[in-house]
Amino acid sequence: MSASSKLPPFDPADPLGIDDLLEPEDLAVRDTVRQWAADRVVPYVADWYERGELPGIRELARELGAIGALGMSLSGYGCAGASAVQYGLACLELEAADSGIRSLVSVQGSLAMYAVHRFGSEAQKQQWLPRMASGEVIGCFGLTEPDHGSDPASMRTYAKKDGSDWVLNGRKMWITNGSVAGVAVVWAQTEEGIRGFVVPADSDGFSAPEIKHKLSLRASVTSELVLDDVRLPADAVLPEVVGLKGPLSCLSHARYGIVWGAMGAARSCFEAALDYAKSREQFGRPIGGFQLTQAKLADMALELHKGILLAHHLGRRMDAGRLRPEQVSFGKLNNVREAIDICRTARTVLGANGISLEYPVMRHATNLESVLTYEGTVEMHQLVLGKALTGLDAFR
């Protein structure tokens, strides 16, 4: 470096200079989603959360479709064909607004649309994907059951052949978007193994009662799916997959989005704590001038930007076709855990104000308690990594 060269200034919002790794197209995607969230979610989400509702979800879905956020990493059929890094950046910005909004997008694109795109017939893709990409149709993904969460191989939902038709019976639980979905991808036991089915929500015997009294993800639609002799034609089955590898590959794709998304919630809490620390005065000066507060802020920034760097690395591996499921578990386990710790530390900086919905901290902290255990609990991801490290299976 010559004597005349100057280092760029230190940026508290990007202390590691991670933005230097992003292409102009990446930044354009990030800025578009950030602006949409700032206009359409941030001013209202505290009220939605307090009421336990997500009003106007169908309108929000259409707006998300219009900016290319639904199924954005898929190609064709009206999908944006964005890179994995761009999809991750979108998840980060959406979850910085609220985990429920990111969940809406993740379930739509990384679970329901991804399942049809990867395992569906051409007719199924043509029928559903363009309308789902535009937000005209909302989708959901039925895997978890009331008695079987971490052990989907033991699911009780069953599909049996009746002539050329399929007849489905069973229940699914904790299904995001369930009661507003126009289509559900439902996984069921069959004589030949676990299969996926595309189930229109207006099918006879299908219902999706909404789950109430949640204390987390309150600005999100969560439902039970009930299948009572739901009769489907032969072409409702996803033809390209048999077995658990179908739903598990969908979950891996969605977990990748969580790796980024969790850092969005963490960033929102860190920014709230930093702003508060610079303006809140105690003992005659801002609390950000005290050593203990600065130590908290430094530790939060450290884990936040390490997590974003990890997410970026995994995104580049996904774009190169080299991302393994174990690496997704690595990212999900680390980033959600660290995001929760950042939220809790931010709450201490804000003191009593940290529990008020005037600030985003407690809302993000409670939302992340759900993110911690959905799409793979802490223990499941620890065991995935443990098996990868030792070569020994401790699941059973």
From TrEMBL:
Residues 140-230 form the Acyl-CoA oxidase/dehydrogenase middle domain. Residues 244-389 form the Acyl-CoA dehydrogenase/oxidase C-terminal domain. GO terms for molecular function: fatty-acyl-CoA binding; flavin adenine dinucleotide binding; glutaryl-CoA dehydrogenase activity. Its cofactor is FAD. Residues 24-136 form the Acyl-CoA dehydrogenase/oxidase N-terminal domain. InterPro entries: Acyl-CoA_Oxase/DH_mid-dom (IPR006091), Acyl-CoA_Oxase/DH_mid-dom_sf (IPR046373), AcylCo_DH-like_C (IPR036250), AcylCo_DH/oxidase_C (IPR009075), AcylCoA_DH/ox_N (IPR013786), AcylCoA_DH/ox_N_sf (IPR037069), AcylCoA_DH/oxidase_NM_dom_sf (IPR009100), Glutaryl-CoA_DH_mitochondrial (IPR052033). It holds the Pfam family Acyl-CoA_dh_1. It comes from the Bacteria. Gene3D superfamilies: Acyl-CoA dehydrogenase/oxidase, N-terminal domain (1.10.540.10), Butyryl-CoA Dehydrogenase, subunit A, domain 2 (2.40.110.10), Butyryl-CoA Dehydrogenase, subunit A, domain 3 (1.20.140.10). The keyword Flavoprotein applies. GO terms for biological process: fatty acid beta-oxidation using acyl-CoA dehydrogenase; fatty-acyl-CoA biosynthetic process. Keywords: FAD, Flavoprotein, Oxidoreductase, Transit peptide. Belongs to the acyl-CoA dehydrogenase family. This is Acyl-CoA dehydrogenase. It comes from Streptomyces curacoi.
